[in-house]
Write a structure and sequence with these properties.
The chain is elongated. By secondary structure, it is an alpha/beta fold. The protein has twelve helices and five strands.
Length: 275
């Protein structure tokens, strides 16, 4: 591998979300600002959408880190659940001990009591649901009913949905139209702008321990932006493959040719014929 060749302590372009590699892009900062404002104003439902690989999971982790001290958070990464299973998962995230044999009434009562206790202690409860486009319609409706839990002053539960654009189509279904009407704040995450790509690449290299001259020149950056369409996950894959190609040649600078070869070997990358 190329770690020693470039003086790196770890691989700089992994595709697993890692907040230590976070680069504050315009789109991500606007999305985070939208989330914090919406949660601060007490909104019950907030929706964040974006194409595959645009950093929704990373944004979710940033949000959980940015919540005010004393907040209670629940993170559900796999929402492909039946309504009752979702309620059990939420109860578990809230630290409740609930028997799987409990009937629906007592399960909801346990959740409601826990939420009322948090509200009495002035603790905000935020549930983040990743990959929300996979949630069955009946589970989305169950989620809406959970959001009905409130006092005269505030919602007991605030829910943030993170999903691919398919989530918008699912929420347009007549059976969940009441939920759609409750979403007061929404943000669509876009890809990185061309001028953000160079900073993104340099930052990840620095975090991984690189201290040398620029590895990605302006022409390579331009090609990477076009091939990835600014999508961070694709950008990581292409940058990694380009570094492998450079290492194989015993060189230290990525050229457009390295990017073209990487793009030709990567599903989802824009064909070199388009750029």
């Amino acid at each position: 591998m190329y770690l020693d060749h470039f003086g790196l302590s770890e691989l700089p372009f992994g595709i697993t979300p890692d907040t230590s590699y976070t680069v504050i892009t315009r789109s991500h900062q606007e999305a985070l600002n939208t989330l914090l404002v919406a949660l601060g104003s007490g909104e019950g439902f907030i929706k964040i959408t974006g194409e595959v690989g645009t950093g929704k999971t990373l944004l979710c982790r940033r949000l959980l880190q940015a919540l005010p001290e004393g907040s209670v958070s629940a993170y559900l990464p796999n929402p492909f659940l039946a309504p009752r299973t979702l309620q059990l998962a939420l109860a578990e995230e809230l630290g409740l001990t609930v028997s799987a044999e409990s009937d629906d009434y007592h399960l909801l009562q346990s959740i409601n009591r826990a939420l009322l206790e948090h509200a009495a202690a002035d603790r905000q409860v935020v549930v983040c649901i990743d990959e929300a486009q996979a949630m069955p319609l009946e589970t989305l409706e169950s989620l809406r009913l959970l959001s009905n839990l409130e006092t005269e002053k505030r919602k007991l539960l605030q829910i943030v949905l993170f999903g691919q654009p398919e989530l918008d189509r699912k929420l347009a279904e007549p059976s969940v139209r009441q939920l759609l009407q409750r979403i007061a704040f929404h943000y669509r995450i876009g890809g990185l702008a061309r001028e953000e790509v160079a900073n993104y690449l340099a930052h990840r290299l620095r975090v991984a321990g690189y201290r040398g001259e620029d590895v990605f020149g302006s022409s390579a950056v331009r090609c990477l932006h076009k091939a990835s369409r600014g999508t961070p996950r694709l950008l990581n894959i292409l940058a990694h493959k380009a570094l492998l190609a450079v290492f194989g040649e015993g060189k230290h600078a990525v050229r457009p040719g390295h990017v073209r070869r990487a793009a030709a070997d990567t599903e989802g990358a824009a064909s070199a014929g388009w750029w």
